[in-house]
Design brief:
heterodimer, A: about 280 residues, five-stranded parallel beta sheet, 8 helices, 13 strands, B: three-stranded antiparallel beta sheet, 18 helices, about 40% helix, globular
Chain lengths: ~280, ~525
């Protein structure tokens, strides 16, 4: 017993004062569209379809990138012959809609040379972040206060996201100090933290868990599979896909799996305490 | 060997190094299985079907055995006529085949005749009859309508004071989904029934529709805690198909990655066992140690859970000499703290009271059920692919395979603790003598058509095996993934009865099986 007390005192406080702002050697890919020629090599190399190249009309090409579907494998970074795909070091990515995580660039193709040049800025679809944040705050206003009770639901994950969600409770990140508690029942929960891809066999259990949670309930989709189905795809015989195919999702936390600080950040976004951020900063 | 199996000497072909095949008729399968087990100490590693009607006009059934004495795998292949879609079951005599054969029935529509319990295992009740997802003519995209039905009735319990406790699929902690039914009389559990496959994602079908180069990323997502194990098993199969030799430095780095994965998982599990008996000091020490390992992995390889580290043909990141020093230094500090953690646990009577004699899986049950990996070694089964079928750099390093006899929670904990010691020993040997070479061999443009190969790796939980077959274009025709969890869940069913319900979490955690790896 004395040994245990001595051990505890000797160890001291491990919790990090500020878990945010840490830099990763690889957050997400960032495309410098001004150097991009829309050759489509990156789309070819992408195993989860996060990058799509298309030719919507003659003389026009588009390239879209969605962080909702990115599994952070870095294949596109190596595949790009123009070295136009850089590496972001920011990891605290969260959004309110799946569309906010996507961007599309348009290119005009010179009919003579066949060379594509960047013509239009990357476009974010759907409502802007500020508007979405206002709407979410308006819905939960005053009801959740400064504490959040979270029920985690694995609706099909590979368990990678569960490992990182569990890590948010370890002594270094210690999510409880932010007023966030992981609870045992949806009856006690304000937030459902759902990982995917939602499988056919978990769909009914997920809906019932949602129905069991009291209003106002917030749904946070965690991980690339939870945001978009990821590498397992959507609409297969076994995988329905992203959580938003089954439940209304309030906050998306992409990543394969998202780091503990990204999950913490997403939960604080759901609480209305932190602002959502999408585009990771570029490191190069 | 052909004598032991009572087959002609030329019936056994060495398809690839370490991989033997025998073509047999379906009726010969049970006899071959009996003789392989009795004569060659064979262990069932996998059993699966492949739909080759397009090219060969038939299905094939494959029995994959490990022959540790010969350091070979043996695959027995039998054709199945589509007009008579059935095969003789071996489950009555060899229970290890039980779920495998039912999975073949669920996903291919081939019936195991003589199976003692031919009920659905993968498919849930609302899946329609006569829809076999892994047949080639079953579409890759498109939802399947739910049908009402009850094909999986739980066994009723009767008797005074006897009742059922249903748990899951959504659990109270941060764990994966599965449904458990405890039949209890008061607190002691009379028996345990299980309903799994809630996270069946159609992974094997998905492989068939991905370019083969992308398969390694899907393999990483079979079980998020066994990223390196499954990526290696898949990569080994593809490399053997393409007859690519992995450079020595890449083999060494793969060994490093696989052992790091073992250490961080074992540390986490030891902490989780402490959590489940409410012993919080070592639990949080273990979490902090694990976080330290993940951060050093992040720093050296750019990834906390070692995703994206294995490439087809080698590895994706080299380790500089400075990186090796950083890692060695971290591991030395870790070793001291890990020893202190184990001492803290086993010196505490309140802890050992909860784990000694809890959740016993007997040696006989482990052998009969074909339990593998650390759970088997904790029940006195001395098997480890790293020694019995060496892959990557393991033939060149010294290590022991820890085996315990207790079969209880403590034995599984001690196997983990001793394996961590061995892993550290392996890591220091490899890090101190890292060969100089490229870190990846180049892969060919395309894989050979209509070929197949087995890949394997002893991951932290146990053996991961992948069988990869190609079609006429050299693209993937079939991947059979076997996670150790698939063989070990029946072991949990045997270990729980006789214990009280409050001990279930700690028993379950001492196995720590993957639902996703099992369900795929």
């Amino acid at each position: 017993m004395l040994g245990i007390i001595a051990k505890s005192l000797g160890t001291g406080v491990l919790t990090e004062a500020d878990p945010f702002g840490g830099r990763a050697s690889f957050g997400f890919p960032v495309v410098d569209f001004s150097r991009c020629t829309a050759c489509g090599e990156c789309a070819q190399s992408c195993p989860s379809g996060a990058i799509q190249a298309a030719t919507p009309t003659e003389g026009c090409k588009t390239l879209s990138l969605s962080y909702a579907a990115c599994i952070q494998c870095r294949a596109c970074v190596t595949a790009c012959p123009e070295k136009a795909i850089g590496v972001s070091d920011g990891v605290e990515v969260a959004a309110y809609t799946r569309e906010q995580l996507a961007q599309t660039a348009s290119f005009t193709v010179d009919p003579e040379t066949g060379r594509a040049t960047f013509s239009q800025d990357a476009v974010h679809h759907g409502p802007g972040l500020a508007e979405s944040a206002f709407r979410l705050r308006d819905r939960i206003r005053g009801r959740l206060g400064r504490s959040l009770h979270v029920r985690q639901v694995d609706a099909g994950s590979c368990n990678g996201c569960e490992l990182e969600i569990a890590a948010t409770a370890n002594p270094l990140y210690d999510l409880e100090r932010f007023g966030i508690h992981l609870v045992a029942s949806p009856r006690h929960a304000d937030v459902l933290l759902v990982t995917g891809p939602v499988t056919r066999n978990m769909e009914i259990a997920l809906r019932r868990t949602y129905d069991a949670a009291p209003e106002p309930r917030v749904v946070v989709a965690v991980g690339t599979c939870g945001c978009s189905g990821g590498i397992f795809g959507e609409g297969t015989y076994a995988a329905i896909g992203g959580v938003d195919r089954v439940l209304p999702v309030d906050v998306y936390i992409p990543g394969c799996p998202p780091r503990p600080q990204a999950i913490l950040n997403g939960l604080l976004v759901a609480m209305g305490v932190r602002e959502a951020r999408i585009l990771p900063s570029r490191e190069q | 060997m052909s004598n032991a199996l009572e087959v002609a000497a030329n019936a056994v072909r060495e398809l690839r190094p370490g991989e033997l095949v025998i073509d047999a008729s379906a009726t010969a399968l049970p006899g071959l299985a009996d003789r392989a087990i009795s004569g060659l100490d064979a262990r069932l590693m996998s059993l699966f079907a492949s739909d080759e009607r397009e090219v060969a006009g038939r299905f094939f059934l494959h029995h994959v055995w490990s022959l540790p004495q010969l350091k070979r795998f043996l695959r027995v292949i039998a054709p199945i006529d589509p007009a008579e879609p059935s095969f003789p079951s071996i489950s009555a005599k060899h229970p290890a085949a039980n779920w495998f054969e039912r999975e073949v029935m669920d996903l291919f529509g081939l019936v195991p005749t003589g199976h003692p319990n031919p009920a659905r295992v993968v498919l849930h009740d609302d899946w329609p009859e006569r829809a076999w997802a892994l047949r080639k003519d079953f579409p890759a995209q498109g939802a399947v309508a739910r049908v009402p039905g009850d094909y999986h009735p739980f066994r009723p319990v009767t008797g005074e004071g006897v009742f059922q406790v249903p748990v899951g699929p959504v659990h109270a902690g941060i764990i994966e989904p599965g449904h458990f039914r405890f039949g209890v009389a008061g607190e002691p559990v009379l028996y345990l029934q299980m309903r799994l496959f809630y996270v069946h994602k159609g992974t094997e079908k998905r492989f068939e529709h991905l370019p083969w180069r992308h398969g390694v990323f899907l393999a990483e997502s079979i079980s998020g805690d066994t990223v390196v194990g499954h990526a290696l098993a898949f990569a080994h199969a593809v490399e053997r198909l393409a007859t690519v030799t992995v450079p020595p430095r890449a083999q060494a780095l793969r060994t490093v990655l696989l052992e790091l994965e073992r250490i961080y998982n074992h540390t986490a599990d030891i902490g989780a066992v402490a959590t489940d008996v409410a012993f919080t000091v070592p639990a949080s020490r273990a979490q902090a140690l694990r976080e330290g390992l993940l951060r050093i992995q992040d720093r050296l390889f750019g990834t906390r859970l070692l995703r994206g580290t294995i490439a087809l043909g080698g590895v994706r990141h080299d380790l500089t000499s400075q990186g090796r020093q950083v890692l060695s230094a971290h591991l030395r500090v870790f070793a001291t703290e890990f020893d202190a953690l184990i001492a803290l646990l086993i010196d505490a009577g309140t802890f050992t009271d909860r784990v000694d004699g809890t959740g016993i899986l007997t040696h006989q049950a482990a052998r009969d059920l074909g339990v593998v990996g650390l759970a088997a070694r904790a029940s006195g089964v001395d098997a480890d692919l790293r020694r019995d079928h060496p892959h990557d750099g393991y033939a060149g390093v010294r290590f022991e395979v820890p085996v315990e006899d207790g079969g209880d929670v403590r034995a599984r904990l001690m196997v983990r603790a001793r394996e961590v010691e061995q892993s550290l020993l392996i890591l220091h040997q490899v890090l101190d003598a890292m060969p100089d070479s490229a870190i990846a061999a180049s892969m060919p443009e395309r894989l050979p058509a209509l070929a197949s190969a087995l890949g394997w790796a002893e991951a932290w939980r146990g053996p991961c095996t992948h069988w990869v077959a190609t079609d006429t274009r050299g693209e993937i025709a079939r991947v059979k993934v076997t996670d150790p969890s698939f063989l070990n869940w029946p072991g949990v069913i045997q270990a729980v009865p006789g214990n009280i319900i409050p001990d279930f979490p700690v028993i379950n955690k001492s196995f720590n099986l993957s639902y996703s790896g099992n369900d795929r």
